[in-house]
Design goal:
The complex is a heterodimer. Chain A is an alpha/beta fold. Chain A contains 13 helices and 9 strands. Chain A has a 9-stranded mixed sheet, sandwiched between helices. In chain A, strand 1 (about 55-65), helix 2 (about 70-80) and strand 2 form a beta-alpha-beta unit. The longest helix of chain A is centred in the first third of the chain and has 35 residues, at about 10-45. Chain A is globular. By secondary structure, chain B is mainly α. Chain B has one helix at about 5-35. Classes of the chains: A alpha/beta, B mainly alpha. The interface between A and B is medium-sized, with 31 and 24 residues.
């Protein structure tokens, strides 16, 4: 191949500098995530569930047109290994048969009660706020109507509240419908991407997104925060930042597992990530004062900066770094370099996947998907994030859009 | 590069990174422990929402 860039040109030097920066950030990011995650892991090792006090909890389940999944979600709550539970299902003006299905399950099951509250459609945040306002107990679990909880999820999370500084606990979300390549890649992404970051933040107790499928809060903390705001598309991230910036510790519990149905179609996946990115940026914009004032709280500042980094900076670096490397290598007549670059990054991703799978006791069968992870799956997700960032900066109008569910909960 | 120089470099860099991570972890832990909520939680009847963990010795 004829070199397109002169070996001494500024363009080549800039390209090499970009690629080296990307590589350094990639390795430092992995080291920090793995190290802090490991510290969190060994700190929590050996905590026995049967020694944790179990005060009554209220579970709030907001639902809107969830007829295909709501029965599975509610049945998982009725078999929780936890002594006293109040379940409040808030129907946010469903137009399908969700209300009838929930009504069929209303009643008392031992120490667990289940009741349905119906309201006019006002969005997920308003449905959650309705449930929080009606909650009778001092600890509140917020979950999604399309999720299913592990029987020990609540017990595992509650032990963190023995520390009076802990205001909320983020649970561990796993993909339940691992039926195709897309959903298996998402299952790996939840382990290697989302949970690994959350575990690292968990050591510092500055988790910046309590996931919608499972979050446990002190009721008082929620009330002081004013509940969920309705002005962002990521109400879970927005509320978490409110709790964090009020000084509360936000912990992560790996054993508090919620299973969620991941989008099975590519278009739904892109829509979901587009909404997440814009929602996160909206939540960060509301706290931009914190982003420029590290002295207000170094760890909170660090958490917000990493949130911005993961949502915007890292996707840009990922796309630019890989494209730049390919251009530089091909232009300099080193086509084989592209192959070795792919091998190097894939080895890193496979190592990270092995760590993530090992630490969560997950199926080894997910690890081979790491080969497709960075250059195909994450590349597409990152492009969606880039468009979302540009449109959020330009304040382009957007709407919620309901994901299609296959009813696999 | 000679093999002994390469190995020495790897050992030195690994050692320095380990020291940095150990110091960083300690500082991060201290910052975490120093952080306090701005507001104290109370319940309607004035009792604390906190509860004590039952240790094996207490059971």
């Amino acid at each position: 191949m004829i070199p397109l860039i002169d070996g001494d040109s500024i363009a080549l030097q800039v390209g090499v500098a970009l690629v080296l920066t990307f590589l350094v950030v990639l390795i430092v990011r992995y080291i920090l995530l793995l190290w802090l995650g490991y510290l969190h892991h060994i700190e929590g090792r050996g905590r026995a569930l049967d020694r944790t006090p179990e005060p009554p909890v209220t579970i709030v389940v907001p639902v809107f047109n969830e007829e295909s999944v709501i029965i599975g979600a509610l049945r998982s709550l009725l078999v929780l290994r936890y002594p006293s539970i109040e379940i409040i299902v808030v129907d946010d003006g469903s137009t399908d048969r969700t209300r009838e299905r929930v009504a069929g399950l209303e009643g008392r099951y031992g120490d667990t009660t289940l009741r349905l509250v119906s309201k006019a459609n006002g969005g997920k945040a308003s449905a959650l706020n309705t449930g929080i306002a009606l909650a009778r107990h001092d600890f509140i679990v917020c979950m999604d109507g399309d999720s299913r909880l592990d029987p020990d999820a609540i017990s595992a999370a509650m032990q963190h509240f023995a520390d009076p500084r802990v205001g909320a606990v983020a649970g561990n979300v796993k993909v339940v419908n691992r039926t195709g390549v897309w959903t298996r890649l998402q299952a790996l992404e939840y382990l290697e991407g989302l949970n690994m970051a959350r575990r690292a933040q968990g050591f510092l107790r500055v988790v910046n997104i309590i996931p919608g499928p499972i979050g446990i809060f002190r009721r008082d903390v929620l009330r002081r925060a004013g509940g969920y705001d309705t002005d962002t598309f990521a109400e879970d991230a927005d509320l978490t930042l409110k709790v964090l910036t009020d000084g509360w510790h936000v912990a992560y519990e790996q054993r508090a597992i919620a299973y969620t149905e991941a989008p099975e179609r590519f278009i739904d996946l892109v829509k979901q990530r587009y909404r997440w990115t814009r929602g996160i940026l909206q939540a960060l914009r509301k706290r931009r004062g914190w982003l420029v004032s590290p002295q207000r709280g170094p760890l909170i500042w660090l958490s917000l900066v990493t949130m911005l980094f993961e949502a915007v900076v890292w996707p840009v670096m990922n796309v630019v770094g890989n494209v730049t490397f390919a251009l530089v290598a091909l232009s300099a007549g080193a086509a084989s370099g592209v192959f070795y670059w792919w091998v190097l990054l894939t080895m890193l991703d496979v190592a990270a996947a092995l760590y993530a799978v090992g630490i969560e006791g997950e199926a080894l069968g997910l690890v081979p998907f790491a080969v497709l992870y960075r250059f195909f799956f994450i590349a597409m997700i990152d492009v969606a994030k880039l468009f979302a960032t540009v449109e959020e900066i330009a304040r382009v109008r957007m709407t919620w859009g309901k994901l299609e569910r296959a009813g696999r909960i | 590069m000679r093999i002994d120089v390469l190995l020495s470099t790897i050992i030195l860099v690994s050692f320095l990174v380990t020291i940095l991570m150990a110091v960083g972890s300690y500082v991060a832990y201290k910052l975490r422990e120093a952080r306090r909520p701005r507001s104290e939680p109370v319940t309607a009847n004035g009792e604390s929402q906190y509860f004590e963990r039952i240790r094996p010795d207490d059971a």
